[in-house]
TrEMBL record:
Its cofactor is [4Fe-4S] cluster. InterPro entries: A/G_AdeGlyc_MutY (IPR005760), DNA_glycosylase (IPR011257), Endonuclease3_FeS-loop_motif (IPR003651), Endouclease-III_FeS-bd_BS (IPR004035), HhH-GPD_domain (IPR003265), HhH_base_excis_C (IPR023170), HhH_motif (IPR000445), MIG/MutY (IPR044298). One of its GO terms (molecular function) is 8-oxo-7,8-dihydroguanine DNA N-glycosylase activity. Gene3D superfamilies: Helix-hairpin-Helix base-excision DNA repair enzymes (C-terminal), Hypothetical protein, domain 2, Nucleoside Triphosphate Pyrophosphohydrolase. Keywords: 4Fe-4S, DNA damage, DNA repair, Glycosidase, Hydrolase, Iron, Iron-sulfur, Metal-binding. The keyword Thylakoid does not apply. It comes from Deinococcus irradiatisoli. It catalyses: Hydrolyzes free adenine bases from 7,8-dihydro-8-oxoguanine:adenine mismatched double-stranded DNA, leaving an apurinic site. It comes from the Bacteria. This is Adenine DNA glycosylase. The keyword Hydrolase applies.
Length: 348
DNA sequence: AACACGGGGAG
DNA sequence: CTCCCAGTGTT
């Protein structure tokens, strides 16, 4: 009885997928109908936190820079971050680089467990790569799957284990890769978070949330940690094209370059900056507001002079925060103000 | 179990 | 503007 319903759902969704699957660059297959595991892996890391429409642009740019695992594994980390620039969650790029070296040395794993052992590869990515590139019967559990399954059973508060169990039961073991992509495509294009398009859904006849009349109520929203407000000051030595840049350590924008920054209110942060860089003649350039996952940064940017080496900003990987800070100098009113300031002493 | 980690899109 | 979205790693 139960098996019959599972098979009906599988057939209905796969029929829909066969007609509506999106043609995406990482879905390209070779003459044997196989996908390049390298492309599948990179795309899945990218799509973890990036929407498909933007992910396509980043994917093509990354593949242009690093067409295969050999190219990626031998590149300097800075070049990898440059290819990832603007994409966010830069730990993904650092892990991609580290994992590439393991893949180049030991070869590609052909199982879920083998992929799971790589840095940056968790249960979702291991299931995606092993099913899509190797045909292993592993069910993915991502945000789309969670939402679709939550609605099919009208389970408002699905736990991770609950979703995984349902996904495992429902998985089409003859076509695991297609099944996983079908479920995720459905979530991305039909079973939308706010306004699900139930009339277009091949599973609406099997859907308890649809039957309830309020499909959008599932799953219930999760509580989120509030964003922290942070003040900081940055120093721009040079100009927007050629400036003094520092490489950041730690996990926050780690490995990326940017203007020297000190946290704290400007009256405290600016003197620290000036002292640290031996800088003089600070002028306030403007304020940059930038929101990150759990941070709302208000950055006061100052121009100053200091005995430091300038370099082309375009050659280094920069976060959007630093691009915004540099862009302050492109504004005509700022240019006018700067030109009206008397020349400072030499920077040699 | 809670949090850190960028950058988006929708309304 | 405000609200919402989301895998992996760390603690």
């Amino acid at each position: 009885m139960h098996e019959v319903k599972v098979e009906q759902r599988q057939a209905a969704l796969l029929r829909w997928f066969d007609a509506h699957a999106r043609a995406l660059p990482w879905r390209r297959v070779d003459l044997g109908g196989r996908r390049d595991p390298y492309r599948v892996w990179v795309s899945e890391i990218l799509l973890q936190q990036t929407q498909v429409v933007r992910g396509t642009f980043y994917f093509e740019r990354f593949m242009q820079a690093f067409p295969d695992v050999q190219a990626l594994s031998t590149a300097p980390l800075e070049a990898v971050l440059k290819a990832w620039e603007g994409c966010g969650y830069y730990a993904r790029a650092r892990n991609l680089h580290k994992a590439a070296q393991q893949l180049a040395e030991r070869g590609f794993p052909d199982t879920y467990k083998g992929w799971l052992a790589l840095p940056g590869v968790g249960p979702y990515t291991a299931a995606a790569v092993s099913s899509l590139a190797y045909g292993e019967a592993r069910a993915v559990n991502d945000g789309n799957v969670r939402r679709v399954l939550s609605r099919l059973w009208a389970e408002a508060h699905p736990s991770e284990a609950w979703v995984q169990q349902r996904a495992d039961e429902l998985l089409d073991r003859a076509r695991p890769g297609d099944w996983n992509e079908a479920l995720m495509d459905l979530g991305a294009t039909v079973c939308l978070p706010k306004s699900p398009r139930c009339p277009a859904c091949p599973l609406s006849a099997h859907c308890a949330a649809f039957a309830s009349g309020e499909p959008g109520a599932y799953p219930a929203p999760k509580r989120r940690t509030p964003v922290k407000t942070v003040r900081a000051a940055a120093l721009l030595i040079g100009d927007a094209d050629s400036a003094y840049l520092e490489q950041r350590g730690g996990t926050l924008l780690g490995g990326l370059f940017g203007l020297p920054i000190e946290e704290g209110p400007p009256e405290e942060a600016l003197p620290r900056l000036l002292k640290r860089l031996n800088a003089v003649s600070p002028r306030h350039l403007g304020t940059v507001n930038h929101t990150m996952t759990h941070r709302q940064i208000t950055l006061e940017v100052y121009a100053a002079e200091a005995p430091v080496a300038l370099e082309p900003a375009a050659g280094r990987p920069l976060s959007r925060l630093d691009h915004k800070a540099l862009a302050l100098l492109d504004r005509a009113d700022v240019q006018g103000r700067l030109w009206s300031v008397p020349e400072a002493e030499g920077v040699d």
